[in-house]
Design brief:
By secondary structure, the protein is α+β, with helices and mostly antiparallel strands. Helix content is 15%, strand content 22%.
Length: 54
């Protein structure tokens, strides 16, 4: 039996009480959430810590 593959058309989430909806094709799959927040929302103070897991 073949597995069904889900197709994501839009990314939808809430950030600080505001809804963000973006076509999935507008975001590279490797984009980190912190990069998305800094480049696609008005929130520029978001920082990436050391970038390494402990």
């Amino acid at each position: 039996m073949a597995e069904a593959t889900a197709v994501v058309e839009r990314l939808v989430f809430a950030l600080n009480g505001r809804r963000y909806e973006v076509p999935a094709g507008d975001v590279e799959p490797s984009t980190r959430l912190v990069e998305f927040i800094r480049t696609r929302t008005p929130f520029k103070g978001t920082k990436l810590g050391c970038g390494e897991a402990s």
